Amino acid sequence: MKNSLFIEKAYHNGSFISSEKTFEVINPATLKPIGSLPDLTVKDCQKFIKSADKAWKSWKTTPVGERSKLVRRLFELINEHRDEMAEIMTLESGKPINESQTEVDYANSFMEWFAEEGKRAYGETIPSLAGNARLQTIKQGIGVVAAITPWNFPLAMITRKVAPALVAGCTVVLKPASQTPFSAIALAKLADMAGFPKGVFNVITSKDSKGIGKELATSQLVRKISFTGSTEVGRTLMEQAASTIKRISLELGGNAPFLVFNDADIDLAVKGAIAGKFRNTGQTCVSINRFYVQEDVYAAFCKKLTAAVKNLVVGNGMKKTTQVGPLINKSGLEKVEHHVADALAKGAKIETGGKVIKDLFYEPTVLSNVSPDSLIASEETFGPVCALFKFKTEDEGVKMANDTPFGLASYFYSENVKQCFRVAEQLEAGMVGINAGLISNASAPFGGVKQSGLGREGSKYGLEEYMEIKYLCFGE
Ligand code: ADP
């Protein structure tokens, strides 16, 4: 591949490194390998952590103005290499090239945001209740940060952790998903070009996610772990991190509801549904998983949604016209097939789709009359399937939407302003899209409640995740 950012090496302490043992990365659209990377071990991981710890000693005292300039420089380099980054992303994740370009921009918006926000890590002066002592707080970077990221957003899930960490004065060991590590290495190449001191940013590549994850979560030297991925793995990392009382941020699975009320603008709702359901072939943690439609508008919404879904173009993401790519792998495809078969067995009707096209490509699908006891109602499908449920009253709709252990994103459509406030306040979710199917924004706090996670990414709150408050008491 002619792409200056495509590098088959890991990045440690300012150097690109190889190893004897490697693993292959597969293009999910063609099922062919696109390249291989070092399959590094737990022992290697210990070296990465040590280097990050050593680098932290000087990085933390580097003025924030300088740290910010480097993050800003990285932002500029990502902009300059937008097409190369997007190409790597599509080849390893299968997502349509237009979506990859949008992701590069979105990922980079965290670099821009935190390069600025890092300068505003203000402390406070606090009035003393007794005597004349002077009380103050300052904020300082936590220390070595371990970041573990998933395959569905190969760059954005990294930058929303790495940008605030670096500007806050932390150093980073990143372990990207083994399905999509080339985007992370491309970022390392640009960080190297930007001129970050050695050891400040490191990328470890490995097939041994469990072993590396455990080392990062239990190491005394790592002061914070930030993870995006499944609730199951998040739970394991939280348990492991308990041994050293590490700070932890978790952005875990969702099971997003999408409510369409009788007062909704149906055309707008269909547009939001397509955007919120089919981006990345339904493989995002904020993807709509359950469509609850109020009875008066159920038939109209189902008809219009089905017509829109039938128009979606499925194919290899490198083709400009493609709107829906393949699933990431066989187990992803099997989950979709299993959920659809289960829904059909419990009485659902196929409005469109419902079959594998070939290899990892699945037809964009609409199922109506889905029973609330179907698997799709309680588990994240992570695929291009719309499951439609009917409800009668607002209370019933909200109750069904909240009937899940998860609470990441939720969406609803209504033109009734009082209903908008009522429902937004009642939904048990960290984020609510009101007449909006896409909600992510670097300036807004992204995160979940219940078993969808801990902490927030992006926004002014996203910086706090990487800083400790220190209280200073100046005696009289
Ligand atoms: P997904 O369904 O998105 O693959 P995972 O939680 O399985 O979600 O994976 C997210 C990230 O966590 C990936 O980088 C993966 O390699 C890593 N991972 C998987 N299992 C573990 C584990 N036991 N400990 C730490 N990281 C893990």
TrEMBL record:
Keyword Oxidoreductase included in the entry's annotation: yes
Residues covered by the Aldehyde dehydrogenase domain: 18-471
Pfam families from the UniProt entry: Aldedh (PF00171)
GO molecular function annotations of the record: oxidoreductase activity
Active site per UniProt: E251
Domain of life where this protein originates: Bacteria
Leading EC class: oxidoreductase
Known EC number: 1.2.1.-
Gene3D superfamilies on file: Aldehyde Dehydrogenase, Chain A, domain 1, Aldehyde Dehydrogenase, Chain A, domain 2
Alphabetically ordered keywords of this record: Oxidoreductase
Family: Belongs to the aldehyde dehydrogenase family.
Stated name of the protein: NAD-dependent succinate-semialdehyde dehydrogenase
